[in-house]
């Protein structure tokens, strides 16, 4: 049988699970990865660009274009990575296995009397000075000349060219997608998006236990995307927390991987994340690390891995009486009375066993491939 080609354009804040998602896409038969846009989130945008290039090179996919996306959310003038993300992804974003990146590891609460370094600063989604703002470095990382290409214009161009023959995969904040829709509103009815983010039936993974990390980074962007009229599938914590990669699977990778295999580096990254998640929540993540971004990547290629409910959705943009909790993804009640309000395909069920089998097998395909550079671990 001929393998159907699925075109994918990704927007990623490349940390550990983004790297594993890239490996899944690179190994998947029939996946044509048109490009990757590096954005802020787990790390600063320039670091995401460097990490993406490194991972693609590791996988023998260095020809895939890597472009720069948004450096900060729509509501802020600058971005500082959060210490929580550094704990889950390491100071370099790749569990200590990536290329050297700028910034100082470590964390400390923002002093109450500290002034923002430049304008309005987001610290992992929280305004500078907020009690929950806990930076992984003390000032915004400067822009990097190595990340000059405009990924948002590229996104617009590719959607106009391919329409729904292209799937946009967003595994970080939705700022890139929202900005593309702002620049080119005409692409909305032609845009197919699979987003990793949000939570409808589960607690969130931020301080308030309501919001999910990617959405709280830029709730305004998420809300615009939900209401844009694009074809949006939300792959949130409702399903990703049911797909855990455990240490046994990683040990099997190691047993198959030679010293020069990229699979060994991916295993090092996964081991870092498994330990970090277990430390954070020994009950929920006793079985391993949640495969947030790899599941979204898999759904971009095979939507049958999840079952969805079509709902009018919104993202709360502030915490106040009558506004809910900032970053929460919840049904938009106007959809109850207005059938024209756009619907989102919200993933609530997942064939976890099938996905985990596909994921482990496809990454094992890299076992016999030579790695272009020695591991940084």
TrEMBL record:
<keyword id="KW-0378">Hydrolase</keyword>
<protein>
    <submittedName>
        <fullName>Nucleoside hydrolase</fullName>
    </submittedName>
</protein>
<dbReference type="InterPro" id="IPR023186">
    <property type="entry name" value="IUNH"/>
</dbReference>
<feature type="domain" description="Inosine/uridine-preferring nucleoside hydrolase">
    <location>
        <begin position="9"/>
        <end position="356"/>
    </location>
</feature>
<dbReference type="Pfam" id="PF01156">
    <property type="entry name" value="IU_nuc_hydro"/>
</dbReference>
<dbReference type="GO" id="GO:0008477">
    <property type="term" value="F:purine nucleosidase activity"/>
</dbReference>
<dbReference type="InterPro" id="IPR001910">
    <property type="entry name" value="Inosine/uridine_hydrolase_dom"/>
</dbReference>
<dbReference type="GO" id="GO:0006152">
    <property type="term" value="P:purine nucleoside catabolic process"/>
</dbReference>
<keyword id="KW-0326">Glycosidase</keyword>
<dbReference type="GO" id="GO:0005829">
    <property type="term" value="C:cytosol"/>
</dbReference>
<dbReference type="InterPro" id="IPR036452">
    <property type="entry name" value="Ribo_hydro-like"/>
</dbReference>
